[in-house]
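Subgroup meeting minutes
Present: P.N., E.W., G.H.
Scribe: E.W.

1. P.N. recapped why we're keeping a running log of single-chain structure predictions: easier to compare across weeks, and new members can see raw inputs and outputs side by side.
2. G.H. added today's entry (636 aa).
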Amino acid sequence: MRRHAITVFCALASLTVLAAPPAKPSVLVVTLDTTRADRLGCYGSAAGLTPSLDAFAAHATLFEHAEAAIPQTVPSHLTLFSGWNPNRHGVRKNLEVRVPASVPLLAEEFKSAGYSTGAFVSAMVLLGRYGMGRGFDTYEDSFFDRRRTDAVERKSGDTLKLALPWVRARKGPWFCWIHLYDPHIPYAPPEPYATKYKARPYDGEVASMDAALGEFLDALEASGALADAVVLICGDHGESLGEHGELTHSLFLYEATTRVPLLVRLPGQTEARRLAQDVGLVDLAPTLRELAGLPAEPADGVSLAPLLQGRPWARGPVYLESLEALYSFGWAPLYGSVEGRSKYILAPRPELYRLDADPGERDNRAGREAAEAKRRREWVQGEIAKAATAAQGEKIALDPEELKSLQSLGYIAGSMGKSARAYRDPKDMAPMLKDCTLAEQLFLEGRRDEAVTKLERVLPKDPGNPLFNYYLGACYEEKNPAKAERFYKKAISVRPGFPQPYSRLVLMWINGDRAREAWQLGALGVKEVDDFNGELHALTGYAALKSGRPAAEVLAFLEAAKERGPELPMALKARAVLALQAGDKEAAVGYLQRMAQEAEPGYITQLAGDPRFEPLREDSRFWTLILGARKALSGR
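Output recorded in log:
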C-alpha cells in the first residue's frame, strides 16, 4: 500500500456507477476509538499523522460529514452494529447495562447467513460478556484480567497481530470487527511516537495506531484476503481536547466529539471519492446488510449503498444525544440533530450552528433563527419520545475490580440525580469542567492532595454536585475520615441512587470498627440504590456479621449479592466464618480457597491473625493459603 497524503479526490458529480459487490462479500469493519476526523490527512490535516489511512482513502469513499449518535464507546458501537439510535436500543452509557436481546446485531445476522464471524477488541468496556459478543464465533478480549486494574486496554499492534491470522485462515465469507482504542485517555503512545509527540500525546496515539493498521492492511492486501471484501473504517466518536471546555468526550455534542472519520471501500474500487452528505454511524448496519445481501431489518439508519454506488439517496436529520451530564453531574441531558450542514442542540438554552460557516460552533443562531430552531426542537422532541418504547437493557454485574479498571479510563457508575433544583445547562458549567476532569485524573493517579485542591475550587460553584462530593470523599478517606464521611453523606443526599458513596462509607465503617453503623447504612442503601453488581449487599452482609446479627440475616444479604454478581472476597470470608460457627470446617476451607483465587495476597495473610479462624489452625490447607499469599507478597 502506497503511503502518501491524499490531496485530490474526484468530485461527486463525476462519480461513475460501481458494480454491486459479490453476492456474499467478506466484510472488515475497523473502529477507531476516540478518533477525531480532523487528525487524518485525508480530512485535511497537514500534521502527517495518518499516512496509512490516507493511502487507504486513495482507493475508497470518504464521507466528509459522518456523525456518531452518542459520544461514548458502547452505545456508539451498538448503534453502528444495530442500525438503532440510543433512544431506541436503550443503552445510553458505557456501564451497567447489557445489550438487550431484542436489539438486532450484525454479527448474528452474518453468522446466520453462513459467514465466519470474529471480533478483536481493545478495551474492557467492550468485553464480550457485556453483550457485544453475541453472534461472534471468536470474540478476542483475553487482555482483560479483573485482578489487575491496569489490564484495561490493548495496544492496536497487539490486537491486529491476533486478528491477522484469523482473517488469513478463513476459507469462506467472513465478517470481522477490529476495535482499536489507542487515542482514548490516558494518552501513552509507544516509542518512537512518545518522544516525537511528547507535547501532543493524543496525536502520538493516532500516529501509532495508523502505523499498526497500515502494516495489517498491507499484509492482508498481499495475501489477497481483501480482494472481495467490503472494508469499512470509522471512528466511534471524537475527542474534544479542550474545545468548549471539555478535555475528553461524553458530555457535549459539538463536532469535536460527534464528527468521525468514515471510509468505505467496495470490492474492486480503485478511485477516491468524497461525499458531502450528512450521514450517521446509524446508517452503517443497513448499508452492510444491503451490500452483503442480508435481509433488511427495521432501522433508524438509511443504507448508504446507493451513495456508494453513485445512485440517488436521501435521509432525514441525523439524531444525536448525550445523557452524560445527567448521569455523572446531575446537569441537563443534551439532545440534537444534524441536517443540511447545520446542528441543533436541545438544552436549557438551545443552540443552532451553521457548520459550513462556523465549524467551531461559536455563533449560536437559535435566537436569530427562531422558526428553524422551533422546527428542529419539535423533531428532536419527537425522537426523545421514542425512548418510552426503547429496548430495556439487562443490568450487568461489575465486580469492584472491574469498576476500578473502568474508573482508570474515566468511567463512573451511578444513577441520575440533580445537582440543583433545576437541571443546569452543561455549557454554563463548562468553566469548572476542566478542573473536574483534571481532578478525576489526579485522583486515579493517586495524587489525592492535588485532586482535593481542584475539587474544592469547583465545589462552591456547584455544591450539590454528587460526583464532586464523591471524589472529595474518596480523596479524604486516608487522611481525614471525618471529612470523607461528610462528603460521602452529601453525595448520597443529593443522589440517593448513587451506589458508590454507600459502598465506600460502609467499608470505611467496617474497617473503623463501626460495624453496627455500617450495617444500618447498608441496610438502608440496598433499598435506595440499584446495587447492580451486588457489592453493597456483600458489604452489608459482612457488616451484619461483624455486628452480631443473626446468621440467617447475614446469609440473606450474601445470597442477594451472589444473585447480582461475582462473590467478593469479603463475602466468601463471611461465609467461611458462618461455616465455622456451624461447625463445618470443610465448607470453611472451601470458601477460603475460593477467596484466595480472587483476593489480593495481603488480604489472605490477614487470616493468620484473625481469631475467628482459630478452628483451622491445625489444618495444613489453611496454612498453605497463608504461606502462598506471603510468598506472592515477597516475590513482588
